TrEMBL record:
Belongs to the sulfatase family. PANTHER family: ARYLSULFATASE FAMILY MEMBER, ENDO-4-O-SULFATASE. This is Arylsulfatase A-like enzyme. The keyword Oxidoreductase does not apply. Residues 4-288 form the Sulfatase N-terminal domain. The keyword Thylakoid does not apply. One of its GO terms (molecular function) is arylsulfatase activity. Keywords: Calcium, Hydrolase, Metal-binding. The lineage of its organism: Bacteria, Bacillati, Actinomycetota, Actinomycetes, Propionibacteriales. InterPro entries: Alkaline_phosphatase_core_sf (IPR017850), Sulfatase (IPR050738), Sulfatase_CS (IPR024607), Sulfatase_N (IPR000917). PROSITE patterns: SULFATASE_1.
Length: 426
């Protein structure tokens, strides 16, 4: 089988908020169509709900203790010395590699292993101009050797009104837009939240259209039949109790893989667990190579084969703007969260704290968190009622606690559980 071309498109802060993931209040026809032509992963999760370390795990196949990113690149976080990124690994296999637009793993985008870096002059890599760059690059590439193109959009990061340099959407959402919004169960249903979600829906529609332009440019090439297209995002949506948390609303992500048409695989909905750390080994496997990473190759699924099901996924957080360490182990049915530092239930990043949704919330989130949380995702999908203190769940709690300990030991995770050394209020 000839090594396929690989196009990886990623957005900021989307979670799963697309029509094809059941969000009927969102217009995303181009990504919905891509999902209908390929594999839609319904149980995909990031390794951490923070921009830089999430993308670092995506592009290395490693968890944060291994790749070194625990915070944000523009605040000093760096890869460990000697880390091999996906463009480096594919370059070793003979791929031409290019980044168009957004990345968040380094202050200098030229340091992360791409042959070419194409970015707009503005600080924000907005979807329209980035799609222009991707279309131009694709039009210039020969079809005699494989390529890897990464296309990154700033969208759908806040502020939603910002359309580009010196461009703003000045028209507030209409009543029809507000009425159409379906508010997730973990958020208050009020005008503040509805307005916020309506703004986000506009951003999604713009980014979806730009994504469609990139897909069209790929499919117009003579080697389109041997090109795999992947779409994903870094982590959950930028709302309280989502981004920067280990609840599913913070770590569950959209992941769509459209195998080369010539392979005749799909459409398929994949319900088995998959992590962002699995993407690098999957793509390297498709390219004919292998790599020693934390993730597991799922390349067989794109070839129409079965692969071993994951029994669990791991995700973690250390700091965004404030040190807030926590770890989670999730199975298909249950979620165990260990909060490593005392504090309020939610520590909100600045963009969330200043959001319309936050303005319409109560202050309950400032109450002290529990050391451990345990959820039955079948009966409590929004993770609103922890059963960690329920005697009936004691055995399950002990089992998941032990499994998490084993994973963290394997990774050499040096995070200290400060709970036992900090005096707690009565």
């Amino acid at each position: 089988m000839t090594a396929p071309n690989i196009v990886l498109i990623h957005w900021h802060d989307l979670g799963t908020r697309l029509g094809c993931y059941g969000h009927t209040d969102v217009e995303s026809p181009r990504l919905d169509a891509l999902a209908e032509a390929g594999l839609r992963f319904d149980a995909a999760f990031c390794a951490t709900p923070l921009c830089t370390p999430a993308r670092a795990s995506l592009f290395t196949g490693l968890y944060p203790p291994r790749h070194g990113h625990h915070g944000l690149a523009h605040r000093g976080s760096r890869y460990r010395e000697g880390i091999r990124t996906l463009p480096m690994l594919l370059g070793d296999l003979g791929y031409r590699t290019a980044l168009a637009g957004m990345q968040h793993e380094a202050v200098d985008p030229n340091s992360i292993g791409f042959d070419e870096v194409l970015q707009t002059p503005s600080r924000g890599q907005f979807c329209g101009p980035v799609a222009d760059l991707a279309e131009d690059w694709l039009a210039r590439q020969p079809a005699d050797s494989p390529y890897f193109l990464t296309v990154g959009f700033t969208e759908v990061h806040r502020d939603y009104e910002v359309l580009g340099p010196d461009q703003r959407d000045e028209d507030p959402p209409s009543q029809d837009e507000l009425d159409r919004v379906i508010v997730p169960g973990f958020l208050p249903d009020n005008e503040h939240t509805r307005t916020d979600l309506a703004w986000m829906s506009r951003s999604i529609a713009r980014a979806d259209a730009a994504t469609g332009r990139v897909v069209d440019a790929v499919r117009a090439r003579p080697d389109a039949d041997n090109t795999v297209i992947i779409f994903t995002t870094d982590h959950g949506m930028p709302f309280p109790r989502a981004k920067s948390t280990l609840y599913d609303s913070g770590i569950r992500i959209a992941l769509i893989m459209a195998p080369p048409p010539a392979w005749q695989v799909g459409p398929t909905v994949v319900d088995q667990l998959i992590s962002h750390v699995d993407l690098t080994p999957t793509l390297v496997d498709l390219a004919g190579g292998s790599c020693d990473v934390d993730g597991i190759s799922h390349a067989g699924l794109l070839r129409g084969e079965s692969v071993e099901r994951r029994s669990q996924i791991l995700s973690m957080k250390d700091l965004h703007e404030i040190y807030d360490p926590m770890r989670t182990l999730r199975t298909e049915r249950h979620k165990y969260i260990r909060n490593l530092h005392p504090g309020p239930r939610l520590i909100l990043p600045t963009d969330l704290d200043e959001s319309p949704t936050r303005a319409g919330m109560s202050t309950d989130y400032r109450q002290l968190r529990d050391h451990e949380e345990l959820y039955d995702l079948q009966t409590d999908p929004d993770e609103l009622h922890s059963i960690a203190a329920d005697p009936a769940a004691a055995e399950l709690l002990a089992t998941l606690r032990d499994q998490l300990d084993q994973e963290l030991t394997r990774l050499g995770d040096a995070a200290v559980d400060a709970w036992s050394i900090v005096e707690q209020p009565e």
